[in-house]
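Notes from hallway chat w/ T.B., transcribed later so I don't forget. T.B. wanted the structure written out for a chain they're using in a teaching module, and asked if we could keep both sequence and structure tokens in one place. Agreed to drop them here.
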Amino acid sequence: MHFVHLHLHSQYSLLDGMISIKQLFEHAEREGIQAVAITDKANLSAVPEIVKEAARHPGVKPIYGCELPVSSPWDGIARPVVLLAKTLTGFRNLMTLVSMANAGGGSPSVCREVVGWFHEGLVCLSGSADGEVARAILDGDLPGAEETARWYGSVFGDDYYLEVTPPGPDAPYTRETFRLGEKLGIKTVATNDVRFVHREDAAGYRLLTSLDRSRDGRPVPGEAYMKTGDEMLAAFPGHPEAVGNTLEVAGKIGTFDIRRQPRLPAFPLSEAQRSRVHRRMRTYARIIDAGARDEEGMLRGDRFFESMSLLCHLAFTGATRRYGSRLPGRVREGLRDELEAISAANLPDLFLICHDIVTWARGNGVLVGPGRGSAPGSLVVYCLGITEVDPLRYGLLPERFMGPGSGILPYLAIDLDERGRSRVVEHLADKYGDGHVALETAFGVLPPDHPGFDERLKGVICRKGVNICTVLLGDRELTEYVPLGVCTAKDGGRRFLLSQYPTGFAQRAGAIQLDLLGCRALTVVKECLARVKSRHGLDIRLEDIPLDDAATFDLYRRADTDGVFHFETPGMKRHLRRMKPGCLEDLMMLDALFRPDALDLLPMAADLKNGDLTVPPTIPETAEILAETYGLTVYQEQVMLIAQRVAGFSPGHSDTLRKALCRRDGPALERLGAEFIRGGLDKGFDEDSLGKVWDSWLPLGRVIFNKSHAVCYALLSYRTAWLKAHYRDEFEAADKKR
């Protein structure tokens, strides 16, 4: 290898780069390219994909970089330099510079002084023909070019390079740049300011740039592909050092891991609250002690003890509201076990934050859903009021939510009415500080029905927006974890920080991702309730709606379900008419099986429910577990419970089995199958029956569903159906308004 590309635009340079990160690394590995830089325009959005692909292609060293506009002290015009991170400190400085450049919300730029403050750990290239040095040369201002080069050289020292690109219309700038470098003792590096991988991709790139209305007739580079080292040497006869110096730069780049463990902010307590939680610590000492020391055996800080004390108090207080002042033994022991697990994992603040979100939302007129995901399996979450489904009543499992020793933050997602969601985000920003809260960027490709679509643009990122489901929260200013921009809320005009990373990576970089989802069904329910109150003077409490209402189930059986959450499609209506659901469990099963991988089971489920078919259990002891689904294995929790009852699996080990089934992990399943047979034999079951049960599970990896989620969404659906059955006019008006 005798050349490294140091200036390259991926698809994340929106409408000015065609290269996907996957394509880039595959090409580099195939061609024996040992390092490559990704330098998108004023953003670091490609970083998550770079991390992923670098792990898949260990022979290609990633160089994290950015083309950053820097405003000139002479005319104020922002012109690009290329910055490359040598070290982790350099990467964090690069994040800071990118965030500051985008802080204004308009055209991104920083001034020279800011670059000087955050230059440590960075290599700087002067920029191609659009850079400040090059433009000064092209404008005939050689003293200005020299002054600029001297300033950057004084800041970056030997890490500043003058950039030259293959001669073209701006060939004079290339010749003068070499002369300037010789005069000032600054090395030159050759780049090709790459936009696409292969020469033949130029036509597709021109199509892409034609979608950019802001180009204003600027020329489209047709040679901006990943030239080989030989092609670059041929482009600079007499200056092989410019090509060779790219290896010097690449050699300065270290290997570092930008990922961090997510760090929860401490839940803020008033002095009065702190006094009360200190008085209660003795009451909950055994629970708190489970996590009192960190992995190195050191006592945690006082905020941990305060947060755990408050969480225990809120959970047990909530339990008395849910179950009465004399708590059943199952509740008391279940809460203690879960709270000890939360303490051991050092996660009290996550639960306090979510409790506060739901409490604030309900107190401020925002409608909150009954729950989603696996969180409803937790007694603690139920007693805190975050979810509304009793996990004991429905046989839900806390291990499905928070497996012991998983090292992964449990998934706590909250559904909110659409209009109230932004108010909740504002509450978080007010409580934790604007710099600690951010939304996340969502990227999109050009849809096939777009008038500018062409097959050559298939899969190319062409637009970005705001993810309406997630919010980031940091224990410190988020710019320490992610590169940021800004966005403005549609309905309030308030500005929020916006992570440049696509959804999902920020939590691997140290921030906390909260899933706060705007749910249309909740918006309809809220509007319907307001209309009922206005017209009939009734304040309906959703939690008081009876779950055995004949009129509601008659509506389901007739498939009169337009507007009813999750049950309004033609396909679902056909299955409603066939199954004739008569209880919430029937709705749960229908919703759980109405998925591509499970649809084939729906006719059998209907026949079983209606008594036209029976499936005797292979092992009689499993009949009770499968009774609610008429003998079918529909839920992941059913597999877990059967493994515990039949083979003696612990709750945590049964969750390991669930994961292996759902991931179709062959080696793990082979080991777990042997354990299941052995455990069942030890408990007195015959090997033939055990084998039949195990074999029946193996094809179910993508069929069995999360029961916690099924019961919550069946409940939300039931509430919309109840409103339609009893207040049709108000419900349909609310649905139309949606």
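Follow-up for T.B.: The first strand starts at residue 35 and ends at 41. Might be a good example for the class.
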